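Obj.: predict assembly geometry.
Materials: sequence records (below).
Method: joint structure prediction, all chains together.
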Amino acid sequence: MSLLTVVYALLFYAATVILVAGVAYRIRLYATTPAPLKIPTMPAPLTNTGVVVRMARELFLFESLFKSNKWIWLFGALFHFGLALVLARHLRYFIEPVWTWVVLIQPFGIYAGFAMVAGLAGLWLRRIVVNRIRYISRASDHLMLALLVGIGFSGLMMKYVARTDIISVKAFFLGLMRFDWQPLPADPPLLVHLGLVALLMIVFPFSKLLHAPGVFFSPSRNQADTAREKRHLAAWAAPLDAQRDA
Amino acid sequence: MAKQDFTTPAFREDRANPAMVPGAMEHSSPFFAKPEHNQALGFPGELVPDWERKAVEKLGDLLKKNRALKVYLDSCVKCGACTDKCHYYIGTGDPKNMPVARQDLLRAVYRRNFTIGGKLFPGLVGAKDMTREVLDDWYKYFHQCSQCRRCSVFCPYGIDTAEISMAAREIMDHIGVGQKYCNEIIGKVHTIGNNLGLPEAALKDTMEGLEEDVEEDTGVAVKYPVDVQGADVLLVTPSADFFAEPHVDGLIGYGKVFHQAGINWTVSSYASEAANFALFIGSYEQMHKVAVRIRKAAQELGVKRVIFGECGHAWRVAYSFLNTLAGPWDFLDPRYPVPQHICEVTHDLIQRGALNLDPSANDDKVVTFHDSCNVARASRMGDAPGGQFHIPRAVIKAAVNKYVDMAPDTICEKTYCCGGGGGLLTDDLMELRVKGALPRMEALQEVVDKHGVTHMAAICAICKTQFAKVVPYYGFDMDMITSVHQLVGDALLLGTKE
Ligand code: SF4
Ligand code: SF4
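Observations (raw structure tokens):
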């Protein structure tokens, strides 16, 4: 077993633990923090089913962003939907036998890789060119884009320039999952790609990538408009009623 | 005194890209509350020792109590979608008035104290310690947010800068840095019952005066009752309705509607205020205390329904929070929602044919309608989403023949704030108020030019006061601002139903 394999194996274990535990901790925190008042952005749905529909429109159509700015919407959509397909395509490295739908999307996954990088490039360009967005950008915002572009770019490199032995890569990841380590090929683009992915997994729970779980917990989007019909009361606010009625 | 030598912004040629002028509003800062104003609300009188630590502590406390704050501080991706959506940014060009930049003033301190990234790499993520400089920026720029929620409509995560502004103001109050306008007014509500400090005797006088005026005008004895035990309806209306122009014509209108519909109503001298400025300072406790007055008044007068007059943020507190703060309302008549908006009531009556309206009485007017932000984006009317847009328009259209809407991206959920909401309706912020009105004034100018609009109706006491003061800066006549229920009152054929 090469040192390289050991390092990457440990790196991925650590990254997975940090990602899962970090995000779980955040979700728990969000879920247990009370929302003391009804603050959905109106007009809001009247029922919980309606809320699910509203949320789905946000998640799958980026509805609010579409209202807001067509360029950000376009680039954001290219990136996110590209990424989603690319991730789905990567499932084949983690399952054996590969599910049929994962096989079927393989060809689209490649276009998705380009879409993802193009979307990122568009977002980055706007971050530099549009003075308002430049003003609100911090170093971390650029670094995050660099990280994602790096991941996309190294991935495409492996596909088109310096092909990697993907059979061994798959063996490596299946080995990780089965605690039966297999050697990782020492191809530079692959090592860069995997290193950056691990880094992304590690920073995820500590960065603005928290918008992914956050969107589900945003009271302005996930509350139903039922204020007059149903009394909404946070536990910490309830004792005020006793004072009132005394 | 904030500087008054400013120029009214010109209507923009290029609406797509508001010009950026860093520091343009750095001098804008409202008067500080005096120690007695702060203390009356239970806040420290002046800046407390060790305030840096106490501010961070209070932020920590709010993060535990308010999920919105936590999620919003974590989730912003700096996409920039909100950057050109705030009327204060559009009107002033100050980049700190871009919603996300405003949030960042608080987010910087949050990151520094509550996140690993900000603790380890403050420079990288824009994290900052709580310093005098930060506090100064907070005071200035969180008082350049009217908490209108327009940014929240456009944010992919619904991040509502209003929530952030409220939290920041609450933190400042807790370290002894209050804003005079809001805190003084809230104190008056606690002691006298309304924002204006209008005592019971003066209120009764005013209402009697209205009865005389209306009778003189119309020959019909319309009642404007105060503290009538056993009335069916408690009307809670902004105290500006009792004497300010054009508000009072709205109140006259409510009285005429109740009169023709045979509704037995009263106002309360104890809860003589619909407004709840505690919303603006983000204080749940203060908001609760103000709201409870309405509960007490309703119980003591033994009414069956509670109806709110025309007021924007008051309707937000009423519609969205009253049940939480002062409910349950199980002692009222269950056949009616609690509370109801006067527009809902009038709309219902019109639908049922209970009002005789002659819209030709308003034929001298071409009317447009300004959606108040708190009604549009923070509440509802009627039983379907969007009723807050449709119902006031339906009421106006029943009372006037000539009605047009302003441009679609400036009304309904995308409405622009009047520029004076959120506790900023004070003379020490005049420059901000004038500049913040720019996008609304542009939209108004368009319908004036295209359709000969003569009047802009509103259902908010703050909007009405703000517009009456600010439209002359843009070359309009202050008399073009009208209450919705003035239009109704003028069109109502008194003496034909009752
Ligand atoms: S709530 Fe309104 S005033 Fe405040 S930042 Fe958002 S758009 Fe501007
Ligand atoms: S739209 Fe929302 S996520 Fe985007 S910059 Fe503004 S607040 Fe942040």
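Conclusions so far: Chain B has a mean pLDDT of 96.
To do: check interface contacts against the pulldown list.
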